[in-house]
Design brief:
7 helices, alpha/beta, about 325 residues, globular, 2 domains, Rossmann fold, single chain
């Protein structure tokens, strides 16, 4: 009888010891039912002027999905970039004063960057230069816009068209979208159901987050009556800002007028490019595939992490 009790006690102790790792994990990270990690491009920013970026390790990155903390499997500086410069054909020809700044920005990219140039017209993208590592060749493809949006002018349909045609590779994806953000296809509020922002902004955001594309936007005045309408300009800028924010990018504008120079905008983008990281983590799958909102934080003082709002997760 005593031998049987001893065996039972030993079995109970072994069982409890086996459960200890799971209990410790529950305090910090939610165990995932999937073994596949997903990737996100993240920007690390130092809060305050003239402060150096501290070293950030995988253990410093906190990813949550709802109330659950997820397991981070990798965190590394981003390498390899597909950068597409997308210019609205409805932009005023005054954009010509910024073209040399754009060309200098393109040729200053590192050698592992591939650059493409295209123009938004008729809700599609007219390719001026496919992705190339020949940076001077890409810079030479930058030209004046036609100052006409065509019959179906929507910058958001154009960027969707671009993302659907993007070649598959392991490089991260970034767009610099130069436009006034006005949806000339759908017209004014009476055609948008009195909506302040074009519904195509949400569609573009969904495609960008699903494909892991960061969309950065720069405001440039457009032509025509809508291009000089305060209501249209303001809501175009709101659409641009919304798209950039939800995809982890930046949006630049200075009131309703063109900036004196694009150089401060491009310098800010370049600094962000240099502080991009690739994050891998294990999300909690749902019953259906789709975008799942996640939140990124870090316990390192004076540092914030910016990313897209959501990541695409396959079904359970």
């Amino acid at each position: 009888m005593q031998l049987r009790r001893l065996a039972s006690a030993v079995l109970l102790m072994v069982t409890l010891i086996g459960l200890l790792p799971l209990q410790a994990l529950d305090k910090d990270e939610k165990p995932s039912t999937t073994t596949e990690s997903v990737k996100m491009t993240v920007t690390a920013r130092v809060l305050g002027e003239n402060k150096r970026m501290p070293n950030i390790s995988r253990e410093d990155v906190i990813v949550t999905q709802g109330k659950d903390r997820l397991r981070v499997t990798n965190w590394a500086p981003a390498r390899g970039l597909d950068l597409f410069i997308l210019i609205d054909e409805s932009s005023d020809t005054s954009l010509g004063s910024y073209l040399d700044e754009l060309r200098s920005f393109i040729v200053s990219q590192p050698s592992n960057t591939s650059v493409g140039i295209g123009y938004m017209r008729n809700g599609t993208v007219y390719m001026a230069q496919n992705f190339t590592n020949d940076l001077p060749k890409a810079a030479n493809a930058v030209r004046l816009p036609l100052a006409s949006s065509g019959a179906f002018g929507s910058p958001y349909l154009s960027v969707i068209d671009l993302m659907k045609r993007w070649p598959e590779n392991s490089n991260r994806r970034e767009v610099v979208m130069i436009t006034d953000g006005i949806d000339r296809l759908r017209g004014g509020p009476w055609r948008r159901g009195l909506g302040f922002i074009s519904p195509d902004v949400d569609s573009a955001s969904t495609v960008a987050q699903r494909t892991g594309t960061i969309v950065n936007t720069i405001f440039a005045r457009g032509v025509g009556r809508r291009g000089s309408n305060f209501w249209e300009i303001t809501n175009g800028q709101n659409g641009m800002a919304k798209l950039a924010d939800e995809t982890g990018g930046e949006s630049f504008f200075l009131g309703t007028q063109n900036a004196v120079s694009f150089r401060p905008y491009l310098d800010s983008l370049q600094k962000s490019f240099e502080n991009r990281y690739v994050l891998e983590f294990q999300p909690l799958p749902g019953k259906k595939p789709g975008l799942k909102p996640v939140t990124l934080t870090t316990e390192i003082a004076g540092v914030e992490l910016d990313s897209a709002d959501s990541v695409w997760v396959d079904a359970r």
